[in-house]
What we know:
The protein is mainly beta. It has 2 helices and 11 strands. Strand 5 and strand 6 (52-62) form a beta hairpin. The termini are far apart.
Amino acid sequence: MTTRAYKIRPKKEAELGSPPMLVLSFELTQKECARLFTCRRIYSRGFFLGGKEFYLMAISQKHNRSSSSSESFALYLGMVKDMRVTVDFEAFWGMSDDLNFSSNAKATLNFKGLDKEFLGFDNLFGIPWSSLMGEESPYFSNGVVRLTVVLTIRS
């Protein structure tokens, strides 16, 4: 049995109308992200969208075992119960304290009902781990990266 570290805690959560849409806003500190390099992953608590339970998983994704420059920050969506569903997954991140979210990534995720299925972004920020975690990284403002995830279930 594995123990999960539930570190991603949404600051705000709102489910909206039809089709079912959920907006999650949360923060990760630079220290929490640095720990990903050794522990590899952290999970959110479960949350519901359209009657289905999901969770987020942030990991330090290793692309090549030879160096740390082949690592990146990955963000995945997982389902608690294996079901077939299609979800639009958008992630926005802010690079300043004013909460203007200037960058985003979009994907349509097709869950096939497989056991332990995680889908999402292998390299959310589009840069190597060393650039994300560097002293001059623009992704952290006052030691915090602010993320907003928008999930919409397709009918």
